[in-house]
Amino acid sequence: MTASQPTERSRRRRDLLVAAACGVFAAGMVGMAFAAVPLYDWFCRTTGFAGTPMTAKAAPANVLDRKIIVRLDANVAGALPWRFMPEKNFVEVRVGDVLTVNYIVVNESAQEIVGNASYNVSPPTVGAYFTKINCFCFTEQRLKPHERREMPVVFFIDPKIAEDSEHDGLNTITLSYTMYRVRQSEPQTVGSAGAGTAPSTTN
């Protein structure tokens, strides 16, 4: 019996160490799962991966004669009762030139709703050269019932694209936004108690 006691203690110590290691591993996996989305988003924004446009604070130093057509696309995800569209279907821009385009969103419901927009460009490989200075993407848009709003996008195509032989024949880029519902505030439907004066439906 005396000889078996150290063995039993060793077994218990080993089991405790294994359990602790499993707990640390599980906690690490949970942490990685929560970190995966922001890390992936950071990676895409930094490298232009998956057609994610780059960001900049200023215009490039030079403008090229080369022109590229930028097609503007807008989509609404799920049951979001919004109308979302670009002011123009496409624009022609010189490489390196800064351009501003507007997207229009209209809340067609009788209650206040919060939305948010994600974006990408295609072909995906051009994400490293399509650069935004100002954008409404990833900023919550809170629209009152029947409210209409214009949202600008300021962008340029980096002149470095001319150094990439893969894009020598590129003449069209598609900038696409998808608006989705984030959350809904306390319902304030037209005609409900405390809703006040019904908002105008004229846009």
User: What is the highest CATH level, the class of the largest domain?
Assistant: Mainly Beta
Number of strands: 10
The percentage of residues in β strands lies in 25-35%
Whole-number average pLDDT? 78
Termini distance? 89 Å
* Residue share in helix: 10-25%
Describe this structure in words.
- The chain is of the alpha+beta class.
- The protein folds into two domains: 1-47; 54-183, Ctag/Cox11 (Pfam 04442), CATH 2.60.370.
- Helices cover 22% and strands 35% of the residues.
- It contains one helix and ten strands.
- It has one helix at 4-47; strands spanning 54-55, 67-76, 82-86, 90-94, 99-107, 113-122, 130-134, 141-143, 148-157, 172-183.
- It has a five-stranded mixed beta sheet.
- The chain is flat.
- It starts with a helix and ends in a 20-residue tail after the last strand.
